[in-house]
């Protein structure tokens, strides 16, 4: 059966992991881990089960919440606590824990390099569609019809009642590039969660748009939930630190859907400078030496538009190539 830390790893759907038990052991004692794997439960139920004072359990729940080890649901019989549902949620929540050390970050990165690639193979097999998708750079779009609200960073930001910015968990642990770290936007419920945990700071809609613009200039791709409503975040991802992009680039995993658009080069404008080739993470653009222009491989293009942002002659646009139905309703 293994240790309670092994049980924790199994509950977040990564049985047999060597590193996840080590990570949780850095955050919780064995008794605390027993409490976690006993969830979902109210504080009173945990107090009864572990013969503890209710006030002590409630204090522990506050600590667990700050660490990212529990999530809260308001139910008729009180607050119900649950541990992370899967390893990705455990990753995103706990890396922003204020008590996280460099040792903790390095152990997470060890997991990402040694165990994560094999785990993503299973994820790819069981998920009909990736959980996330690209949002295109809006200025580069050439839509057949009006752009949809759920594929517009501006519209998602304008419709959010609360916005917070947090640090990118992936770049925090990997630190493989010097791109900005405080650029992940949390929207609505997710923003309120980050503010309650004090893992993010509230920003105005204008500052959020400034972060979007800065991220585009830095060559970061906008990524959000792969559905049509109730969006919770806009991540701004690089190709080297992100938990999904390297899996796609190195292993060909279907971890992230493209946008509904594809880059197109207007040959008469292209000066063959190679800027777009350098900025494309997916090797979707090459220089055709015979024609002396950049050429896009539509099968490789993710439709992010990062290639267009710094094109000196505005020779790149994004054409709509997939129907609205490509994005799952939900």
How does the SSE layout of this entry go?
Layout: H1 4-11, H2 19-25, H3 30-37, E1 41-42, H4 43-50, H5 54-67, E2 71-75, E3 78-82, H6 87-94, H7 102-114, H8 116-126, E4 132-135, E5 141-142, H9 153-159, E6 163-166, H10 169-174, E7 184-187, H11 189-197, E8 200-202, H12 205-217, E9 221-225, E10 233-237, H13 245-251, E11 256-257, E12 261-265, H14 275-279, E13 285-288, E14 293-296, H15 306-309, E15 316-320
pLDDT averaged over residues: 96
Instruction: Tell me the helix content.
Output: 25-40%
If you consult CATH, what is the topology of the largest domain?
Answer: Alpha-Beta Plaits
Q: What is the domain total for the residues?
A: 2
Give the strand content: 15-25%
Note the total helix count. 15
Intertermini distance: 38 Å
Major pleated sheet: 7 strands, mixed
Structural class: alpha+beta
Structural account:
This protein has two domains: 4-114, Orthogonal Bundle (Arc Repressor Mutant, subunit A), CATH 1.10.10; 126-326, Alpha-Beta Plaits, CATH 3.30.70.20. The strands form four sheets. The chain has a seven-stranded mixed sheet with strand order 8-6-7-10-9-4-11, with helices on both faces. It has a three-stranded antiparallel sheet with strand order 1-3-2. The chain starts with a helix and ends in a 10-residue tail after the last strand. β2 (71-75) and β3 form a beta hairpin. The protein is of the alpha+beta class. It has helices at residues 4-11, 19-25, 30-37, 43-50, 54-67, 87-94, 102-114, 116-126, 153-159, 169-174, 189-197, 205-217, 245-251, 275-279, 306-309; strands spanning 41-42, 71-75, 78-82, 132-135, 141-142, 163-166, 184-187, 200-202, 221-225, 233-237, 256-257, 261-265, 285-288, 293-296, 316-320.
């Amino acid at each position: 059966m293994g240790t309670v830390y092994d049980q924790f790893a199994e509950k977040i759907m990564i049985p047999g992991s060597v590193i996840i038990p080590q990570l949780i052991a850095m955050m919780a004692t064995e008794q605390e881990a027993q409490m976690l794997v006993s969830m979902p439960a109210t504080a009173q139920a945990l107090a009864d089960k572990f013969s503890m004072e209710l006030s002590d359990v409630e204090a522990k729940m506050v600590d667990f919440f700050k660490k990212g080890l529990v999530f809260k649901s308001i139910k008729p019989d009180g607050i119900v606590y649950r541990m992370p549902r899967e390893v990705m949620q455990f990753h995103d929540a706990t890396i922003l824990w204020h008590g996280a050390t460099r040792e903790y970050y390095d152990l997470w990165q060890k997991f990402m390099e040694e165990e994560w690639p094999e785990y993503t193979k299973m994820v790819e097999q069981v998920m009909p569609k990736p959980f996330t998708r690209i949002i295109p750079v809006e200025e580069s779009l050439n839509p057949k019809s009006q752009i949809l609200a759920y594929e517009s960073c501006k519209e998602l930001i304008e419709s959010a009642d609360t916005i917070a910015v947090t640090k990118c968990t992936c770049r925090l642990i990997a630190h493989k590039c010097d791109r900005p770290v405080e650029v992940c936007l949390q929207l609505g419920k997710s923003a309120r969660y980050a503010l309650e945990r004090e893992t993010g700071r509230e920003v105005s809609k204008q500052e959020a748009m400034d972060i979007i613009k800065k991220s585009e200039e830095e060559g970061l791709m906008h990524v959000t939930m792969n559905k049509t409503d109730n969006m919770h975040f806009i991540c701004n991802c690089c190709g080297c630190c992100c938990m999904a992009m390297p899996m796609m680039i190195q292993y060909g995993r279907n971890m992230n859907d493209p946008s509904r658009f594809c880059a197109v080069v207007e040959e008469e404008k292209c000066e063959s400078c190679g800027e777009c080739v350098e900025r494309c993470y997916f090797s979707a653009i090459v220089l055709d030496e015979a024609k002396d222009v950049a050429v896009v491989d539509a099968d490789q293009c993710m439709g992010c538009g990062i290639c267009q942002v710094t094109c000196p002659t505005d020779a790149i646009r994004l054409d709509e190539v997939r129907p609205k139905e490509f994005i799952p309703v939900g």
